[in-house]
Amino acid sequence: MHLRVLDLSHNKITGVMPDCWNHSHANLEVMDFSYNNLHGSIPASTCSGNIPLTYLYLNNNNLSGEIPSSLKGCGWLSTLDLSYNNMNGSIPTWFAANLSSLQFLQLHANMFTGSIPPELGSLESLQVIDLANNHLSGAIPHSLGNFTAMKTAPDLSSATIESYMDHIKANIKGRVDNYDKILLLLTYIDLSDNELSGEIPEEIGTLSYLVSLKLFRNHLSGKLPKEIGNMVSLESLDLSMNNLSGSIPQSMVELSFLSHLNLSYNNFSGQIPNRGQFLTFQDQSIYFGNHGLCGLPLNVSCQTYQSSQPPNSQRGVLDDDDDDDDDEDESVWFYSGIALGFVLGLCVVCSILLLNRKWRFAYFRYVDDSYSSFYVFVAVNLGKIGRESS
C-alpha cells in the first residue's frame, strides 16, 4: 500500500482513533485528524511500525492522557501538533533524543504540568515551540537559547512533499493567521499563560532570527536582560502580567522590526526609551500597570517623577513619615542658625561698645540725635494735622 497522506481534518468524526498504525501503513507521511471530536488517548501503535511519518496533526479534538512513548519511533517527524486537547502529564525529555528532526512543536491549551525540559534546547531544527496555556512551572531553561534554527537564516531550498502543504495557525500580532507558503520564515516561542517563575535567561537574546516571543501571564521576575536588544528580527514581544522590574533596556531601541509590544502590568520603572521603534508606540495601554514608568506616551513627566523620588535610589517605595521628619529637622536647623547668628552679632556690637570709649560715645550720641529727630518729626506732623482738622 502506498498511502502517503491521510487527511481527515475538519470533519465531525467522533469516537477514538484506530489503533492500527503499524506495518500496514509503511509509507504514511502525513496524518491529519485535526478539528474533529475524537476522544481517548493517542494509539500506542502510532509510529510503531517504523513508518516515515513527517506531519502529525491531532489538534482541536478531545484527546486525553499522556504523550505516548510510541512516538519515540517518529524519527522523521517534523511537525507535532497536539494543541487544544485535554492531554496531561509532563513534556517528555526524550523529544530531544528521538525527534531530532522536529521543527514545529505545538502543545498549546492542554493540561501539561511539570517544568520545561532543558533537553529541548538540543532540538537544533526547532522553529516553533508553543507550550502556552498549560500548567507548566519552574524556570525558563537557559538552554532555549541554543535553538540553531532561531539563530540563522532559514534554508529556503527546503520543500514539503508535493501532495501536501504543511501549515500552522499562529497568533503572532494579536490575530490568528494561517501560515503555509512562508512557513519556513516563521520562528516563535510562546510560553504564555503558565506558572513559570524566575528570570528571563539572557541566552534568549542570541535568537537573532526569532520573530515572536510571548511570555505573558506567568510569574516571571527580575530585570529584562539587555541582550534582548540583539533579537534584531523580533516583530512581536509580549511580557505583560508578570513581576518583571527595573528599567526598559535602552538596547531595545535597536529592534527596528518590532511592531507589537506589551509590557503592561509589571513593575518596570524609569523613563520609557524615546528613540527608534519606541517612537511608533503611541498606545498608553502597553505600559499600564507599571507605576514607576514615565515619559511619552504616558502623561507622566520624568522630571516630576524624579523630583518625587527619595535620595536613596535603592528605596523602592516613598516613606512619607521619613520625609516629614527630614523636613522638620531641616527647619529646626535653619531657624537655629538664624538665632545663633543674631546672638553672635549682638555680642560683637556690645563688645565693641564696651571696649572702645570713643565708639561708645559716638553710638549713644547717634541714638540721642536719632531720637530727637524722630520726636521733632512726629510733633510737627501732629500739629499740622490738628490745624487742618480745625
UniProtKB/TrEMBL annotation:
EC number assigned by the record: 2.7.11.1
Entry keywords, A to Z: Kinase, Serine/threonine-protein kinase, Transferase
Keyword Kinase: yes
Protein name: Non-specific serine/threonine protein kinase protein
Organism: Dioscorea alata
